[in-house]
Design brief:
By secondary structure, the chain is of the alpha+beta class. Among the domains are: 19-226, 2-Layer Sandwich (Heat Shock Protein 90); 231-390, Ribosomal Protein S5, domain 2 (2-Layer Sandwich), CATH 3.30.230. It binds 3-[3-(1H-pyrrolo[2,3-b]pyridin-5-yl)phenyl]propanoic acid.
Length: 650
């Protein structure tokens, strides 16, 4: 080893250091943000490396452990990151991978690295943003280790023993000074990504374990994710609360023009379209060329079959592309060597040649299926015809709602207490559960910029209703007219006339109980299905009312969680007399007087609002389908399990 290498101070490694410094200075540039999303991104980044090793055919088991101190361990049984001297850098390859930005994917060119995409910033990034990281490599009979602090190696890679295992183990503790909001990992968030990864990469076993908590039997909470059928199972999972109308999940897997394509789809008796797409395991929320390819293949094949069948002969109007996708649940997953990501959130695939690859793959798959399953083919075409008829009815109903708005003078619903300011950028509208809470909100608000729209009871379950039916619903009509924008499932309606939007903050305010969470989900479903652009533009929020009022003499404090409550009780109790602190549990918004509602939940100075994001459309869709689908059991179970979370991320 040269002198330089021993110290690890070659010119290149100084540059590497600067790269690492840059990650710490501008973390959001690398991982998106430094909130909970970015925090969880660290785990995905490390796991992606192991997935790459699995895709290269060298690894079939990955274990992810949340340790007691909130560090995370990711283990795999791959070849182990090479530990030999890296010629150019003069230090161990392991050290290069861990401390040089962008070094991650340089070794293996053949596999479709996630690198270069949305993730793929490399494990060095995780290292830079960790207080401490410990890498252990099992390779060629030996164990090698290196530790780092905030991305800097504490010692050169050293052998620490013998082993007949192969693999890599990385344990990292996120840096609190970077992730200031929290470094607490959410088990369910990690679980849903691991589940997704197991469907997208069949054959790999991913074990997730939480060592922070034990179940009743005294065991650590753990889940094992493994899929033998891949996307086929993913579709079944997404549709488990819906009723299928055809016998199988239609699936294909293969390579077209050099692009590996996987597709799975089925039809259910709902009216919703659930289409999810992935590129190199990344959920492409904004779609792109692969999704266009899927749509094109689907429409062309079904249209041709329908035309030849004669079933369309009596139909008086054209069938539109949307009609072929009512009740469709489908997943498209492609692997692209050099993906170009576009769009607002860089989750839209731009590579032109992928469209025809996917379109051809889908056409071939579907043609075969329709030939071999004529009964299913007939059922699908009948469904398409019904969808086309309903679309016509919906168009009329939509026009009626829009026309009524114009006729009724101001066009605003009678129940809306509008604000005086007219500048949408500063205006807010609260959609409030129940007339009584609505009354408090009206009294408590700042009427200059805050409008209140009380909603009575439950709004319609839009997933189960056909589009034209939802326009008969008073509450939904009120929301639509209050907001002032267009709506609907058709392409032209989806491109909302955003400039007409009357409020740039739309705040859902419901009780912090099971009914409240159900109503919130119903409203979210409506926005998700019919005004998705509002979510995408960040206009939709959830109000977070406090759970407790704590009183000691003249002191009044509010608590938003159990932890909050315990902390504040300690704080305001005199001489440790915690019993003397009065605790009032708020069951509903109605229990707060207007002033309390203002101070805790509506006053921009003190309130906390949760912005609704489309984190993972697949997860959100599953959530919606579980809550809204036909089967009651999974819905109950879900609501009960999640009732403790005051907020649902969609
Ligand atoms: C490059 C080359 C080789 C292994 C890996 C990367 C590798 C990286 C990671 C990251 C997490 N787990 C991993 N497992 C393997 C091996 C090349 C060889 O052995 O010939």
């Amino acid at each position: 080893m040269s002198e330089k290498a021993k110290k690890g101070y070659s010119a290149d490694s100084i540059q590497a250091l600067e790269g690492m410094e840059h990650v710490r200075m501008r973390p959001s540039m690398y991982i998106g943000d430094v909130g909970t999303r970015g925090l969880h991104h660290l785990v995905y980044e490390v796991v992606d490396n192991s997935i790459d090793e699995a895709l290269a055919g060298h690894c079939d088991a990955i274990t992810v452990i949340i340790n007691e101190n909130n560090s995370v361990t990711v283990q795999d049984n791959g070849r182990g990151i090479p530990v030999g001297m890296h010629k150019k850098e003069g230090v161990s390859a392991l050290e290069v991978v861990m401390t040089k930005i962008g070094a991650g994917g340089k070794f293996d060119k053949d596999s479709y690295k996630v690198s270069g995409g949305l993730h793929g910033v490399g494990v060095s990034c995780v290292n830079a943003l960790s207080d401490h990281l410990h890498a252990i490599v099992y390779r060629e009979g030996k164990v090698w280790e290196q530790e780092y602090e905030r991305g800097k190696a504490l010692y050169p890679v050293k052998p620490t023993g013998d082993s007949d295992k192969n693999g890599t183990q990385v344990t990292f503790l996120p840096d609190k000074s970077i992730f200031q909001q929290t470094i607490e990992f959410n088990y369910d968030t990690l679980a849903s990504r691991m589940r997704e990864l197991s469907y997208l990469n069949k054959g790999i076993t991913i074990i997730l374990m939480d060592k922070r908590e034990k179940d009743e039997a005294g065991e650590f909470i753990t889940d094992t994710f493994h899929s033998t059928e891949g996307l086929k199972e993913f579709v079944k999972f997404l549709d488990n609360a819906r009723t299928p109308i055809i016998n199988h999940v239609i699936a294909m897997e293969g390579e077209k023009n050099g692009t590996p394509v996987e597709v799975a789809m089925t039809y259910n008796d709902s009216y919703a379209e659930n289409l999810h797409s992935y590129v190199n395991n990344i959920n492409t929320h904004e779609g792109g060329t692969h999704l266009s390819g899927f749509r094109r293949g689907l429409t062309a094949t079904l249209k041709k079959y329908a035309d030849n069948s004669g079933m369309l002969d009596k139909l008086k109007f054209e069938i539109s592309g949307d009609d072929f996708r009512e009740g469709l649940t489908a997943i498209v997953s492609v692997k692209v060597a050099e993906p170009q990501f576009e769009g607002q959130t860089k989750t839209k695939l731009g590579n032109r040649d992928v469209t025809s690859a996917v379109s051809q793959a889908v056409s071939e798959m579907l043609e075969d299926y329709l030939e071999e399953n004529p009964n299913d083919a007939k059922i699908i075409i009948q469904k398409v015809i019904l969808a086309a008829q309903a679309r016509h009815a919906a168009k009329k109903a939509r026009e009626m709602v829009q026309r009524k708005n114009v006729l009724s003078g101001t066009g605003l619903p009678g129940k809306l207490a509008d604000c005086s300011d007219k500048d949408p950028a500063v205006c807010e509208v609260y959609l409030v559960e129940g007339d009584s809470a609505g009354g408090s909100a009206k009294q408590g608000r700042d009427r200059k910029f805050q409008a209140i729209l009380p909603l009575r009871g439950k709004i319609l379950n839009v997933e189960k209703a056909q589009e034209h039916k939802i326009y008969d619903n008073e509450e939904i009509k009120n929301i639509i007219t209050a907001l002032g924008v267009s709506f609907g499932t058709e392409e032209d309606a989806k491109a909302l006339n955003m400039e007409k939007l009357r409020y740039h903050k739309i705040v859902i305010m419901t009780d912090a109980d099971i009914d409240g969470s159900h109503i919130r989900t119903l409203i979210l479903t409506f926005f998700f299905r019919y005004m998705r652009a509002l979510i995408e533009n960040g206009y939709l929020y959830i109000a977070l009312p406090p759970l407790y009022l704590l009183k000691k003499g003249k002191t009044e404090r509010y608590a938003w969680s159990e932890d909050d409550r315990m902390r504040i009780v300690k704080e305001i109790a005199t001489e440790g007399k915690e019993d003397a602190v009065g605790v009032q549990r708020y069951k509903g918004l109605g229990e707060m007087n207007p002033e309390q509602l203002w101070t805790t939940t509506m006053d921009p100075e003190h309130r906390s609002l949760k912005q609704v994001t489309i984190e993972s459309a697949a997860e959100a869709d599953h959530l919606f389908s579980m809550l809204m689908g036909d089967e009651v059991a999974p819905r109950r179970e879900f609501i009960e399990k999640n009732a403790k979370y005051a907020n649902v991320d969609v």
